[in-house]
Design a protein that fits this description.
It is a single chain. The protein has one domain. It is elongated, with a radius of gyration of 12 Å. By secondary structure, it is mainly α. It contains 3 helices and no strands.
Length: 62
Amino acid sequence: MPDTDIANTAAASERFFRLYERHCVEPNEDTLFSFLEASHSLNDRLKIGANQDFLMLANSQR
């Protein structure tokens, strides 16, 4: 994985967890929308950077 892909994936991961925490602390429609948007972005970055599908990984753990 190239360094730029790692950096992009790391940034998307940080944003995902930051917005997850914000939604847990003060849940409302805006924080939910931001969290869902971040999860979509993380999925895109993981597909490019690690050839993984975040949403499929989450579903396969059930």
